[in-house]
Amino acid sequence: MSTQVPEDAEATESTDEDAAEPPATAEPGPQERRLAAKEARTGRKSMPTTDVEETVHLRVYRYDPEVEDKQHPHYDDFHVPKTEGMTVLDALIYARDEFDSSLTFRHSCRQAVCGSDAFFVNGRQKLGCKTQIGDLDEPVRIEPLPHSEVVKDLVVDMQHFYDQMHAVQPYFQPDDEPPGDLEEYRQSRENRDKIKLSTRCIWCGACMSSCNIAAGDNKYLGPAAINKAYRFAMDEREGEEAMRDRFDHMAQEHGVWRCQTQFSCTEVCPKDIPLTEHIQELKREAVKQNLKFW
Amino acid sequence: MTYQHDVIVVGGGGAGLRAAIAANEAGADVAIVSKLHPVRSHTGAAEGGINAVLQSEDSIESHAYDTMKGSDYLADAPAVETLANESPEETMQLEHWGMPFSREEDGRVSQRPFGGLSFARTTYAGAETGHHLLHTLYEQVIKRGIEVYQEWFVTRLALTDHDDPEERHCHGVAAIDLKTGEIGGFTANSGVILATGGLGQVFDHTTNAVANTGDGYAMAYRAGVPLEDMEFVQFHPTSLPSTGVLISEAVRGEGGILYNSEGERFMFERGYATEWGEVASRDVVSRAELTEINEGRGFDDDYVLLDMRHLGRERILDRLENIVHLAEDFEGVDPLEQPMPVKPGQHYQMGGIETNEFGATCIDGLYAAGECACVSVHGANRLGGNALPELFVFGKLAGLAAAGEDLDEPLISVGRTPDAETGSVETPITPGAIDAPASDVATSGSAALGPQETVEATVEAERDHIDRLLERETGVGHAAIRAEVQQTMTENVNVFREEANIKQALEDIQAAREAYQDVSVNDPSRTYNTDLIHTIETRNIIDLAETIALGALVRTEFRGAHWRAEHQERKDDEWLKHTFISWAQGRPELWFKPVILEGELQEYEPKIRSY
Q: Are A34 and B126 in contact (CB < 8 Å)?
């Protein structure tokens, strides 16, 4: 079972998305709104009081291979009382705990570091815990990440994603022996800054799910794995041999050259990692390395 | 289906990954069995850093002394000195594995000041040190090809059924494969290591993840291993009020200031810590904040303010950037422009499964490391920056021990040694029982069986248990029961504790036990049944809440994080001892053992603790 199956739903989604996308500057951002809410709460600034009866309408994808009613994917509607600062994850938890305990989704840290709760929210890959429900058009449609096998409801099989992450030799391989038990491999601040953004990846899979190339080529390493390779390839302390191996791997058929710079991964990354730029930089490096070792 | 390895590590966070690497390097066939994929573990949420003596002006003695003082003289000296001794080399080991530490101009790793430390020895990677630690360790697990059974929830230890828990042997575990619902057995030829992390979900305002339901503590407890010092719960002074999301101590370490609603820098101006101010130990700052709030000098009767704007944009973005994102995303505040609202939130459990410095418990073949263990290195209050080194120092040692490496003779003894004294406390209800089985051991007669048969008998018992939960047609859901326990704990066994409140909590917990008798799982599916998982976790939460409340009731003194209204002083004559709670015939049993203050580096004479 894959989320790609309800194709007509996908088609509707893109129209919805186009229609629903608010102009970038028209609405206050989440920060301003939460700030306003806080001010209202502390009475430091006047604000209309929130209607306690107000609910948010969720439309959630349901599927379970074993349960008769759920073997055919469908959507369930939930009307959840809206509270200030409520996130998509908060709303899902409420729906599960109050209405239907079989509603299934991954979540853990609820602070955007464990990477468990990437969903397809109103046609876009988002982390549930980091997405304010008030910023979304209703009904809020919540689906599993596209281009992955669905295990149940919003839970997808992440194995392919993990396999790609594991494929890039995702570990540090310096040439030299450690300078001593209590001595570090020194690294310049500039070099640390260069790799800093790439190390923020939380393995949520949003980028891979958003990538058209990955959707069509199952062997494509994908943005997250290439970014992981970037973290090591750009580390000034990595050994030359490891570097060469890594670039060979990156330059293979299903590596960096597959990327068509559509920027969808960069747009959905919840940690704001410039994934496409990193891929582009590796392409340039691969060319250089190739010339060097030729 | 049963799986077999030399060492089974339960949990894939910092302690579990480090234990697995160590066991692998010692030549063992090791597997990690974890409820979450390792990179989802809550180690990843740790922000501040790692205490390690790396500079010539600093000293191991000083780190050990700060830790013992921070513990309010309830840590065991051999554990404290092991941590201080091993942390520098182990921290550098992480650096050699590529952990992206923040750097000085000369390319060396940076260190910063932290609460309760007399030297700036907190080594860090931005304000996301735990994330980098977790990912670096997982990279090494991948490199070594260590087997990971991810999204397998371990629910029961496979133990022989000897009457005396200390004669039992642990041969493995039973676990549920979340994806398929299969209940499998894992046989450990050499040892099982519990590294399941914290229990923050016992409370309803916590910095902990939803997955932190204390599964390891509860499994060990029901298997007959004593839980030590459970009353010592750390409430972190700076969590965001609406979600409990952690704002790192690094903010104060770098110079952040706490204000009350009268604009006072209350840590100094109200005399809570006239020397150390905001960087006093966590228990001190949490009590100060709540006192301010309770006396009407908070905001909204709920929080105080933490201001870091004066540090300047450049320094904040260099060292604390993650804090800016957290405050914006989870509280709607831009800390570059305005102070952040903060209040105390449950953060860390100092107590846990009793182990020696090599992770061994009193049950043969069973080890524990990380937050779920109590070595005891934190005593009555953990210092910021000491949890991450705890994970890798004691994780590594447990991994070596479980793999059968020759280690020194331990200086800490486990189980009921001759110096143990029995204890009792008057409770409004008789805690425990309500049809709870005597203990989670394999079926009767397993003492005579081999390892494989013990594991099979355990799997069978777990299968029956889960079938019963799934087949029950009607009943209450776990969510309501769990919420009751969380609320009573936050209301009654929080930073400030009074006898009547703790007793109220014990009554509420007993009511939850009773309600749990009728708990039912509505989701009939075997596939990824989180309803079932949360129902099993809720039982763990009930058992652990009870141990915390009992410990809080019996300890009639004020020490570290444990404050009692009726007992406003530390009573060294009576209470220089650890509290133990053992599960015996379905009832919690209280006993004590003296704290070890005599170390190899120095003797730690209890002094008045002031900051």
A: no
Q: Which residues contact B315 (CB under 8 A, 6 or more apart)?
A: B254
Whole domain around residue A101: which residue ranges?
7-156
Tokens of B69: 């003082």
Please report residues of B whose CB lies closer than 8 A to that of A185: 95-96
Cα B495 to Cα B492: distance, rounded to the nearest angstrom: 9
Q: Are B161 and B442 in contact (CB under 8 A)?
A: yes
A-B Cβ pairs (cutoff 8 Å, strict):
178
Q: B487 — phi, psi (to 5°)?
A: -70, -45
> What one-character-per-residue DSSP string does B414-448 give?
-SS-TT-EE-----SS--S-SS--S---PSTTGGG
Whether A23 and A104 share a structural domain: yes
Answer whether A97 sits within 8 Å of B479, measured CB to CB.
Answer: yes
- The range of the structural domain enclosing residue B477 comes to 446-594
Secondary structure, 3-state, A95-148? HHHHHCCCCCCCCCCCCCCCCCCEEEECCEEEEHHHCEHHHCCCCEEEECCCCC
Q: Which of A157, A162, A189 sits opposite B105 (nearest CB)?
A: A189
pLDDT tens, position by position, B222-255:
999 999 999 999 999 999 998 899 999 999 999 9
For residue B252, indicate whether it is catalytic.
yes
- Residue A109 to residue B526, Cβ atoms within 8 A: no
Residue A135 lies in a domain: yes
DSSP B312: -
Same domain, A225 and A262: yes
CA distance B427 to B552: 12
* Claim to verify: residue A241 and residue A264 sit in the same structural domain: yes
Number of domains comprising chain A: 2
How high is the pLDDT of residue A7? 36
User: Beta-strand (E) ranges in B72-132?
Assistant: 111-112, 122-123
CB contact A160 to B (< 8 Å)? no
Chain B residue nearest residue A66, CA to CA: B525
How many residues would you count in chain B? Answer: 611
Residues B453 and B569 in one domain: yes
Of A42, A97, A116, the CB nearest to B299: A42
How is the beta sheet containing B122-123 ordered, strand by strand? B50-51, B122-123, B111-112
pLDDT for B100-124, tens place per residue? 999 999 999 999 999 999 999 999 9
pLDDT surpasses 70 at B125: yes
What CATH number is attached to the domain comprising A284?
A: 1.10.1060.10
User: How many other β-carbons are positioned within 10 Å of the β-carbon of residue A286?
Assistant: 21
Backbone φ and ψ of B574, nearest 5°: -100, -35
Q: Which residues contact A98 (CB under 8 A, 6 or more apart)?
A: A80, B479
Domain assignment present for residue B302? The answer is: yes
| pLDDT, tens digit, 9 for 90 and up, residues B325-346 | 999 999 989 999 999 999 999 9
Of the three residues A98, A124, A156, the one that is the final residue of a domain is A156
B232 to chain A, minimum CA–CA distance in Å? 23
Helices (H), B270-386: 282-294, 313-319, 321-331
Q: β-strands B111-112, B30-34: how paired? A: unpaired
